[in-house]
Every structure is written in C-alpha cells, then in structure tokens.
Amino acid sequence: MKKIITVLVSALVIGCGDNHDHDHDHDHDHDHDHDHDHEHGAGGHSHKAPHGGILVDVENEFCHLEFLREPGTKRLLMHAMRFHPEGLLKFYVEKISVNAKIGEEVKEFYLKPMELDGVTSTKEPTSLYVAEIDWLGDDSVFEATLGDFMIENKTLKNISFKYPGK
Predict the structure, then answer these.
(1) What digits encode the pLDDT tens for the residues 61-96?
(2) Phi and psi (nearest 5°) for 9?
(3) Cα 66–Cα 103–Cα 51 angle in degrees, nearest 5
(4) Per 3-state DSSP, what percentage of the chain is helix, strand, and coil (rounded to 5)?
C-alpha cells in the first residue's frame, strides 16, 4: 500500500512532464466552454479540442486553431485559443484564404472575422473566424491549407489540416 501511495504522489508531482507552469486551477469556471485535458504521448502532451473539432497546434504551442463545421449548416468555424496560459486568442485580419483539396480539385474560400455570436461580422480582434462554403456537407472530406496571416506580429505560414480529421 505504501508503494502505491508513493507512486501516486510521484505522478502528481511530476504532472505533465513538460516544464511549464499552470497559473490556473483545473476547475475551469471560465466564461468560455473549454476542456483542457492533457493526453500524454511519447515525449509531450496534446490538448483536447474544446468544441469537438480538429485541433491544430501552431508553431509549437504559440496557439491552437480548432476547425469544425457548424452542425446543420454549410459554415466552417475556426476558433483561435491558447492553452498556456489558457484563453481565447483574439486577433484581427480582414480574411484568411484557405485552399481546400477535394480529390484532385482545389477550391478556395475565406474565413472572416465574426463576433463570438457567430453571426455578426466584426472589424475588431476576435477569436472566431467563419467561412460560408456552398459545397460543405455531412460527407465532405478535404485537405486544407491556410494562406499566410499575422497574429501578434508573427506571420503564420503553412497551417494545414485534414477535414474531418483522422
């Protein structure tokens, strides 16, 4: 029994194994709906997509972008966030171009800044970008690459993801 307690205490002390501080508790009584589950793999950790979409780690945890289709619509949402420290990442660009490869065909669409209501367009920094895509449906499968854009004076390049994911 003593050995089990020692192992449990050691596991709690070691935590993530990545040498970073968490200045927040894990009760998550925040004003945004966020799960922050660490899934430990070989030599690191990953995060759970808070909205159930496809989560892309950008520039080694500079930020994360989550892509998902709004249920029952032809709208693709992109949420920007950080996990260290945890919170929404608000920035403004007029639009983000996206090239989607569907089989051999490439189609372009644009993610545009929206208020957090997901309906009202904005010219203010926001963490939500939305694209209306006429061909997006339940059975859509594509590989997407975002055009270059800037967050906090950092140019982000070559961000890509597979929809609907793995």
Answers:
(1) 999 999 999 999 999 999 999 998 899 999 999 999
(2) -65, -40
(3) 15
(4) 10, 45, 50
Residue from 98, 84, 166 nearest 131 by CA = 98
Instruction: Give backbone dihedrals phi and psi of 32, rounded to 5 degrees, phi first.
Output: -120, 150
The angle formed by the CA atoms of residues 61, 64 and 70, to the nearest 5 degrees, is 170
Task: Please choose, from the candidates 157, 160, 118, the residue with its C-alpha nearest in 3D space to the C-alpha of residue 143.
Answer: 160
Residue with tokens 């669409």: 109
Parallel, antiparallel, or unpaired for β 142-146 and 128-132? unpaired
SS3 156: strand
pTM: 0.73
* C-alpha to C-alpha distance for 138 and 78, rounded to whole angstroms: 17
CA gap 137, 8 in Å, rounded: 46
Answer yes or no: are the C-beta atoms of 47 and 36 closer than 8 Å: yes
Please tell me the distance from the alpha carbon of residue 124 to that of residue 93, in angstroms, as a whole number: 9
- Cis geometry, peptide bond prior to residue 50 (ω within 30 degrees of 0): no
Tokens read off for 145: 């690459």
